[in-house]
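Feature request, filed as a ticket because there's no other form

It would be nice if the structure record came with a short human-readable summary line next to the tokens. Right now we just get the raw output. Example of a typical job, pasted below so the devs can see what we mean:
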Amino acid sequence: KQWYQRRVAITAGEVKTSEGLVSIVRLTKGAYRLGDPIEVNLEFGDLQCVQVTLKLQALETLSPESEVREGTDTRCTTHDTKTIQCIHTRSTAVTLHIPLNVVNSFSTNIVLVRWQVHFDFVIAHLPQTAEIVDAGLTSVSAKGLDCDWRPLDTLNVSTLSWELPIRVVPTLPQYIATIAWQRTQTKDTV
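Raw output as currently delivered:
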């Protein structure tokens, strides 16, 4: 018997442009507790993604009656950020952490607190035959084929932003104590 439980990924969405598929985003759960890690799996599509930045954000929206100043209805706070270099990568996984000292998702007649994972995909625009690296001079020696590889001088890119809403729920006090203990055990000591 296998002693571990396999996590089944929930497909959260496909990120597409008019040029093709950028990425398929998968999460392991539908809702997260305070202190939970958010495991995000990315499978890249047809377009060449050079870099992706993920931000865990809490959005606080005031009702129109509660606004102090006009136009200040939504406040965004970023709690965790990860940047991945993904040139020639077919898939990758990223873990974001929900802090223990934040507010879970909730709604009242005054304020709405919701959470999202914000993605910034940097996409390279290359002709079909072009590569990210430029093959330089090639020569044959006694050892075999020698290649001189160098990066392109310029790379035409664009940034695509995408948001994925998630639900953050309260946690149990016992769970907080366990997470705090685990985090103190995994810190490197000098």
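Something like this underneath would help us a lot:
The helical segments are 173-186.
The chain has one helix and twelve strands.
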